[in-house]
Specification:
Length: 307
């Protein structure tokens, strides 16, 4: 029987103040005919490909724990993107990897704004300070401001989404390289939209021991599988693997992703179509009076209206 004294206790007061101050990440689930708000690939796989996925799932032993190293999935991603399997950490979406990075390095965490909301939300939930540096009017990155703020605040992590969400633009290589070489922080380059920009810092990763690259399978067509990946120097990979949760990629996601990645030709065709349609939509928006449209290297377009 619950006493009146127990009923009066406010257990929420035991939650960290930093968490109580937060607002939950908002996801709009309003039913709609055309869904465009989550930057997903709008094309489902054709029926014959879906049959292959069902067959892959049929062989999964859900009474057993999944492969803790996700070996076959890593091999498939290595074939897709040329990232060595030993230099790869997989996460339950990039969100888990963002959390792991902040857990490993601590704060302060520096971000340009506006940018992907989970960098700040995760940092504050983990009781880390967040320093923000506004982007330019054209959403460009000012490396000198970032470097100055990082040194003043002694930032441990700098998150740079490039291409950036929600602005759609990719920051200049020169700006990012300057930040990499002029700060002591871990610089996380989030290439979630790599499939649509087709530009990457992967070739120079070996030259920058403080660089971490994030990618995800979500934007290219597998948002429902929740698979993100991280690559960095072997020293950083070894440290981050210490705090990666065991069995963090479930067996069903592993099996389906391996099967789905065999259809790279289909995925590439869908991505090429999205890039083509992006340009067509950009051109159409640019012709409308009262609309300011911004260049995009993602699968979405940011625009402003005067009314």
């Amino acid at each position: 029987m619950v006493t009146k004294a127990l009923q009066k206790r406010d257990i929420v007061k035991l939650i960290k103040p930093e968490v109580r101050k937060l607002k939950a990440y908002a996801i709009d689930e309003t039913p709609c005919r055309i869904k465009l708000d989550a930057m997903e690939n709008p094309f489902p796989l054709p029926e014959e490909a879906q049959v292959e996925l069902v067959e892959a799932v049929r062989h999964v032993l859900i009474n057993r724990y999944p492969d803790p190293s996700a070996t076959k999935l890593k091999e498939s991603i290595a074939e897709l993107w040329g990232i060595g399997t030993m230099r790869m950490v997989l996460g339950n979406g990039s969100d888990e990897l963002i959390q792991a990075i902040i857990l490993a390095f601590g704060g302060p965490v520096l971000i340009p704004t506006p940018t992907f909301a989970m960098y700040e939300l995760t940092a504050r939930a983990l009781s880390q300070d967040v320093i923000s540096v506004p982007l330019g009017k054209d959403f460009s990155l000012n490396p000198d401001k970032i470097i100055k703020k990082a040194k003043t605040a002694q930032a441990r992590i700098i998150f740079l989404a490039s291409p950036n969400n929600p602005t759609g633009n990719r920051f200049s290589d020169e700006a990012i390289l300057k930040i990499l070489t002029k700060t002591n922080a871990a610089v996380v380059i989030d290439e979630a939209y790599f499939s649509f920009s087709r530009k990457t810092f992967l070739p120079v990763l070996k030259d920058h021991p403080n660089m971490i690259i994030l990618r995800t399978l979500s934007k290219m067509g597998f948002a429902g599988l929740r698979i993100g990946l991280l690559t960095a120097s072997q020293k950083l990979i070894d440290q981050l693997n210490k705090i990666r949760l065991p069995y963090n990629i479930n067996a069903l996601s592993q099996a389906v992703a391996v099967a789905a990645l065999r259809r790279r030709d289909l995925l590439n065709m869908q991505i090429s179509l999205l890039i083509s349609e992006r340009q067509r939509l950009y051109n159409a928006l640019a012709q409308i009076n009262g609309v300011t449209v911004y260049p995009s290297e993602t699968n979405f377009i940011l625009f402003r209206t005067t009314t």
